[in-house]
């Protein structure tokens, strides 16, 4: 019998092709889920923003205002004048500014600021705001604190403050600007960009804090611990 050996290599063209379509579908699905999750999270973030200023739910030992937005300081001084707190910390003051500079923007507040306000010139962001506020609160022996900042910044501020001071009762007072009241944010490109940027920062803060809570502190406050406090009382700043 004539036996023939087929020495031709197997037909590689007949091998199953890589399921590129399936991979592409999985990528598209994953992106769609991520987009949906981000959109849902953004809606949740927006639901936390107050559209009107409400009186604090109760008085507190102290008041802290985070500088950076219009009318934050004036609203905080007004709360102090009405007796909502015993003392005010103005956090994030420019190093060259004094209590006199602040009083010029808040009419008839010089005497109140001289007696009952402290300046923090060390904080440069929300996290360091929280760290410097923690020092101030613990040095004063306070157990409750009214937090004053803009409504769009409040969610991230509370995340950082709660992480830095889990033993302190925080009472938010969200400052709402006239522009926020006058027109819907979704009709203003600048407001939309601000909210999206703040949402990204808020998510980043939430992730970092949650990881730190389980022992994975990716960004420890080494510099904050190494540098001694540089706060000055309002009276010292004025002199």
Largest sheet, spatial ordering of strands: 5-4-1-2-3-6
Write down the domain tally: 1
Helical stretch tally: 10
SS elements, strand count? 6
The CATH architecture comes to 3-Layer(aba) Sandwich
Helix fraction, binned, reads 40-55%
Strand content: 5-15%
**What is the 3D shape?**
globular
Residue stretches low in confidence (pLDDT < 50, at least 5 long) are 223-239
Overall radius of gyration:
27 Å
Description:
- This protein is α/β, with parallel strands linked by helices and 239 residues long.
- The protein has one domain (62-238): Rossmann fold (3-Layer(aba) Sandwich), CATH 3.40.50.
- Helix content is 49%, strand content 13%.
- Strands 5-4-1-2-3-6 form a 6-stranded mixed sheet, with helices on both faces.
- The chain is globular and about 75 Å long.
- It starts with 19 loop residues before the first helix and ends with a helix.
Task: Provide a concise account of the structure shown.
It is built from ten helices and six strands; from the N terminus they run H-E-H-E-H-H-E-H-E-H-E-H-H-H-E-H.
């Amino acid at each position: 019998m004539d036996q023939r050996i087929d020495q031709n290599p197997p037909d590689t063209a007949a091998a199953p092709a890589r399921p590129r379509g399936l991979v592409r579908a999985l990528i598209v699905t994953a992106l769609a889920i991520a987009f949906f999750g981000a959109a849902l999270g953004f809606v949740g973030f927006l639901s936390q923003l107050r559209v009107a200023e409400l009186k604090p739910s109760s008085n507190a030992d102290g008041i802290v205002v985070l500088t950076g937005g219009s009318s934050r300081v004036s609203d905080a001084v007004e709360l102090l004048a009405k007796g909502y707190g015993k003392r005010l910390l103005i956090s994030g003051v420019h190093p060259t500014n004094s209590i006199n500079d602040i009083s010029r923007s808040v009419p008839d507040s010089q005497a109140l600021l001289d007696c009952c306000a402290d300046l923090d010139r060390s904080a440069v962001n929300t996290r360091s705001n929280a760290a410097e506020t923690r020092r101030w609160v613990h040095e004063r022996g306070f157990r409750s604190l009214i937090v004053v900042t803009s409504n769009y910044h409040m969610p991230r501020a509370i995340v950082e403050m709660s992480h830095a001071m889990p033993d302190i009762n925080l009472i938010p007072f969200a400052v709402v600007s006239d522009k926020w009241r006058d027109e819907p944010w979704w009709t203003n490109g600048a407001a939309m960009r601000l909210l999206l940027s703040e949402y990204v920062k808020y998510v980043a803060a939430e992730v970092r804090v949650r990881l730190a809570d389980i022992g994975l502190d990716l960004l420890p406050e080494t510099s904050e611990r190494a540098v001694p406090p540089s706060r000055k009382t309002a009276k010292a700043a004025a002199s």
